[in-house]
Amino acid sequence: MVRNLILSGGVAHDYARTSAMLADVLAEVGIESAVRDDFAVVESGGLLDYDLLTLNCVWWTCDQTPEWRDEWHFELSEAARHGILEFLSHGKGLLALHCATICFDDWAEYREILGAWWEWGHSRHAPLQEQTMRVVGDHPIVAGMADFRIVDELYTNARAAGELAPLIVAEWEGVTHPILWVRNYGLGRVCYNALGHGPEAFANPSNRLLLQRGALWAARRALPR
Fold this sequence. Notes:
By secondary structure, the protein is α/β, with parallel strands linked by helices. The chain has helices spanning 15-27, 40-44, 66-72, 78-89, 108-114, 199-203, 205-218, and strands at 2-10, 31-36, 52-58, 93-97, 116-117, 124-125, 129-135, 148-152, 155-156, 159-160, 168-172, 175-185, 188-193.
């Protein structure tokens, strides 16, 4: 059994619904998830009781969006930063979804962990509509998968902390954008999947397989075919 902590919550998304759907998707491959919308476990050191940390949330300072700042302003505590770094230093896994590139904008090291970040004024997303995802990488997460269509927001123009080797890409306005990539951070494994705005993404069969495989890969378990 893989133990997974899903950090959920934030503005402009139905996280209560999608985190529950995500937990069900991962349960199909033996991943038991606890869903939290606070950071108490991370700050207390309890994160080490888990094999996988999943970010299905959007927690950031909101300094760039004053209309949301009073209600949604968030700063990642030093204890939480330490907890995440300690977790990864033990060779455990991070599965980061959709808005994870926006999260923790007050923590520079997080950009290196994830590999890219949302830069306000540069990054953006296409409308919520059907998009084509193209498989381009050679990795167990995408082994045997064909290109697929999905209803989702297409995140574009992320700033990369270094060279990315995407496994899934999509086209928007004549530009190819990375959608899913994996990387190591120290001993830890990181999988970022830009899909996941709403329930449609978590119901899509191809994305469900990507979520399962990405989670298992990050947690160093065998992947389903």
